[in-house]
Amino acid sequence: MARMSAEERRESVIRAAAKEFARGGYYGTSTEAIAKQVGVSQPYLFRLFPNKQAMFLAASARCLETTRAVFARAAEGLEGEEARSAMADAYMRLIAEDPHVLQMQLQMYVTVSAAEAAGDHELGELVREGWLKLWDTVTVPIGGDLKETTTFMAYGMLINTLTAMGFPPGHRVWEGLHPSGGPDGAVGKPVGGSAESPRSVPPAQ
Predict the structure, then answer these.
(1) Which residue in 78, 74, 20 sits closest to 45, CA to CA?
(2) Burial letters for 58-80: b for 16+ Cβ neighbours within 10 Å, e otherwise?
(3) Which residues lie below 8 Å from residue 86, measured CB to CB, with a gap of 6+?
(4) Which of 10, 37, 54, 160 is spaced 20 to 30 A from 17 at the CA atom?
């Protein structure tokens, strides 16, 4: 078996860290658990990343970029409602097929809040930068309308919250989530067993 390069090991650490932090949060996750997931020693882990905060920063950046890329691919060549619907569908598939993405988002926001309160702004700066890239990625295909972008992202945060709380498909809390807030939308069928929004409901981070 070919020996993994340092860059390949680094990539493995980011993937493992994202899953461990998603489950346990920043403060509840040990670097020992991450090293065990990757199959390396802690001393080697710290040759790739200087500390746990650096691992969390890398995992957060990856989470944000993964979501941004999903939006970008889904909206490619589309505009307006078609782009909005495609991005919504793609996001719902993402969090249904890989729940760690949503869990990592939620842990990221909690950790940013705690860090900001303590006067540590490094993580917040990274997350805000990544979030603005998400915002811009959404804004362009739906026509640059800031109100539409705000609605898209706001609905998405509600979807994140309802999904995280485990509301099942068909529950009445989903009934108001329909395309563009109009009266004709219907709640979609579950994807991978997770609560799903209507096809055009805008998911956001």
Answers:
(1) 20
(2) bbbbbbbeebbebbbebbeeeee
(3) 74, 75, 78
(4) 160
* Listed residue (88, 108, 110) closest to 100, CA to CA: 108
CA angle 88, 58, 70 (to 5 degrees): 20
Is the four-CA dihedral 90, 96, 31, 3 of positive or negative sign?
negative
**Which range (50-54, 92-96, 162-166, 181-185) has the least confidence?**
181-185
Residue whose token pair is 């539409």: 148
With 0-12 / 13-18 / 19 or more C-beta atoms within 10 angstroms meaning exposed / middle / buried, residue 155 is buried
pTM for this entry: 0.81
User: Sign of dihedral through CA atoms 95, 98, 101, 107?
Assistant: positive
- Measured CA to CA, the distance from residue 200 to residue 176 in angstroms comes to 12
Mean pLDDT across 34-54: 93
pLDDT tens for each residue of 56-80: 999 999 999 999 999 999 999 999 9
Residue 169's identity, in one-letter code, is P
CA 121 to chain centre: 20
Residues 194 and 197: their CA atoms lie apart, in Å, by 10
